[in-house]
Write a structure and sequence with these properties.
By secondary structure, the protein is an alpha+beta fold. About 20% of the residues lie in helices and about 30% in strands.
Length: about 70
């Protein structure tokens, strides 16, 4: 059973994107445990059968609405 204070143990594979335009870096606001807000680079977990590059593209699009080249 999980609750808001549960801790997951193990390895989670993630992919994050660094978007830089005109010397500015894009970060996203994330809400974590107990209402804490943190700033992070857009990204998230890598799904089964997905490459890190595919996960990065999907997560950046999901979290920001931006594609990349």
């Amino acid at each position: 059973m999980f609750n808001k204070y549960s801790v997951l143990r193990g390895t989670i594979k993630i992919s994050q994107g660094f978007i830089i335009k005109e010397d500015k870096v894009l970060m996203v606001k994330q809400y974590v445990q107990r209402g804490t807000i943190v700033w992070n680079f857009p990204g998230g977990g890598i799904e089964e059968g997905e490459s890190p590059e595919q996960a990065c593209e999907r997560e950046v699009k999901d979290e920001t609405g931006y594609g990349y080249q």
